[in-house]
Amino acid sequence: MTLNNKVIWITGASSGIGKGLALELSKNYPCKLILSSRRQDGLEHVKEQCNKNENIAILPFDLQDYNNMNFVVEKALNCFGSIDILINNGGISQRSLIIDTAIEVDKKLMEIDYLGTVSLSKALLPYFIKKQNGHFVTVTSLMGKFSSPYRSGYCGAKHALHGFFDALRLEHDKDHIKVTMICPGFVNTDIAKNALTGNGSQQNTQDTATKNGLTVETFSKKMITAIKREKFEAYIGKKEVLGVYLKRFFPKLLHKFILKSQVR
């Protein structure tokens, strides 16, 4: 699949992976971009760094406001008159033990990471069906394939996304709608700094594994390749990617490995 002349909508575009995708796409592909996140100032800053500003629209909204997505999709369609690819990248992480995590934190993770993404995708789905073409690209995590301590709510939401989008792919194959699940390992972004702790506050510290992860530029290039190939799933990271295969074939070995790794 070519990305030339496509309209690509990216959520979570004000920083991290979303920002990296916007920069990479604007500099190397003749496409139009719609950039979304909660922060308009952050989106404006990303737009300034992109090439061909006339091909970039910004649309701030909050994924947690998942009852308002029909209106958001209407505004997105008015930007360039069409949408070809929705990259569901927006979300938030967590760093706290289950016993220390208030249920309100689990609820917030589900509302943002799962319900917000699902609601946005469902609001756009009728347009893709009418057009008989479209591509949902959803950024989950390797934590959507196996789990790790301190991330129970995050893992739950990411696992749920796989269940939903696998069903969407099956139901709408007849409508020529594609689904690609992107599963990052460690990427050097602020995801750990912005992660919620047990009481809902931000962690505000970086962890070693995240700091030593793939650069955003390297990750973005690999992710774009997976999108162009219309892969069902792509696992992008370093040695942590092996966890997917250990979970499938040697789950007890993976369990022991994670216990020893003390990843936080």
From TrEMBL:
Similarity-based family: Belongs to the short-chain dehydrogenases/reductases (SDR) family.
Superkingdom, natural source: Bacteria
Membrane spanning residue stretches: none
Name recorded for this polypeptide: SDR family oxidoreductase
